[in-house]
Design brief:
The chain is mainly beta and 318 residues long. The protein has 3 domains: 74 residues, no CATH class; 119 residues, no CATH class; 83 residues, Immunoglobulin-like (Sandwich), CATH 2.60.40.1930. A 5-stranded mixed β-sheet has the order 15-13-12-17-20, with no helix packed on it. The chain has a 5-stranded antiparallel β-sheet with strand order 14-16-21-18-19, with no helix packed on it. It has a 4-stranded antiparallel β-sheet with strand order 4-10-7-8, with no helix packed on it. A hairpin with a 2-residue loop joins strand 1 and strand 2. It is elongated. The N and C termini lie far apart (98 Å).
Length: 318
């Protein structure tokens, strides 16, 4: 035995040591649609995720924060859960790699509008409006959000389930869940008309950089539409139709009107409800009628101004 100093000796013998075996992780079996997965013990960029068969991942991978809802994830961090959607059943391969550096803004054109919703607790979420040169090239399904996992979780989205929508041809509805009132709604990069479902409690034209405040905790949905002045008067067919007990009626005004009336009659011509009666600015409007207190049957609704009149039929089935 050779003395090496400092109470260290070398016998010349060799001792085998197995060490730690690095084992490759098996792929994760996943179903078609949304899947909730967790990462392994290493950081994994979402851009390095692959599937068997290949090409099954649809859209972004999402994490969740209590202050900001669903957020696009650039990396899978150990100890956290993530949502991703597959177009068909298959397997997900989680591959290690350096920390990713992409941001959501890399996928959102600069000329898209924004609807920023912030509640009284400081929780905030941004919805986008597809507009400008890239709007026609944008696949809106790419921006689908994961399902709402449980009641009362903070979540803001369009009722289509997406966080990007095109408002050029039709109004859309924003739904808010788990928010603390009052809620501030700010618009950037466009002009919007924002109403509640009835069109009475909230009915605002909001310019870029402006915001409105929603104090009524009963308002959890907002109708939003591009503030583009229509080129003609119109009254649309209600939807759904037949209905029970609520239905939606839309109409357009190409100019400011001193006296607009939207009236509902029964089959005998008797007035049963008046949704609008007053002065209105040019724009597109949506109103909801709750027929819970009237009988099953045929009803007629009429939009009337000093220059325009239109009548349509609808059926209530209880």
């Amino acid at each position: 035995m050779k003395h090496l100093g400092a109470n260290t000796y070398n016998t010349g013998d060799e001792w085998p040591a197995g060490g730690i075996n690095i084992v490759a992780h098996d792929p994760l079996n996943a179903a078609a649609g949304w899947n909730l997965i967790g990462g392994y013990e290493f950081l994994a960029p979402t851009s390095a995720l692959t599937t068997n068969p290949s090409g099954l991942i649809s859209g972004f991978v999402y994490g969740y924060t209590t202050s900001g809802g669903y957020q696009v994830a650039s990396d899978l961090v150990p100890g956290y859960g993530y949502w991703l959607k597959l177009t068909a059943a298959g397997q997900i391969n989680i591959n290690p790699g350096p920390k990713a550096n992409f941001k959501l803004s890399d996928f959102i054109p600069d000329d898209f509008g924004k609807i920023i919703i912030t509640d009284n607790a400081g929780k905030s979420y941004t919805l986008y409006v597809a507009q400008g040169k890239q709007a026609q090239k944008t696949s809106l399904d790419f921006f689908e959000l994961p399902p709402v996992a449980f009641p009362d979780m903070f979540d803001v989205r369009y009722t289509t389930g997406r966080f990007v929508e095109d408002l050029s041809s039709a109004m859309k509805t924003v739904q808010m869940q788990g928010v603390e009132y009052p809620v501030r709604v700010k618009v950037e990069g466009m002009m919007l008309r924002i109403t509640d479902e009835t069109g009475k409690a909230v009915n605002e034209r909001v310019n870029s950089g402006e915001e409105i405040t929603i104090s009524n905790s009963q308002i959890s949905k907002l109708n939003v539409m591009s503030d583009i002045i229509p080129d003609k008067y119109s009254l649309e067919q209600n939807y759904p139709n037949p209905f029970n007990p609520t239905t939606t009626i839309e109409f357009s005004l190409p100019e400011d009107v001193e006296n607009v009336r939207l009236t509902i009659y029964n089959a005998l011509g008797e007035k049963v409800s008046e949704l609008v009666n007053g002065k209105m600015e040019a724009g597109r409007y949506r109103y909801q009628w709750n027929a819970g207190n009237v009988a099953t049957g045929l009803y007629i609704y009429e939009l009337k101004t000093n220059k325009f009149s239109s009548v349509k039929k609808m059926m209530l089935l209880k």
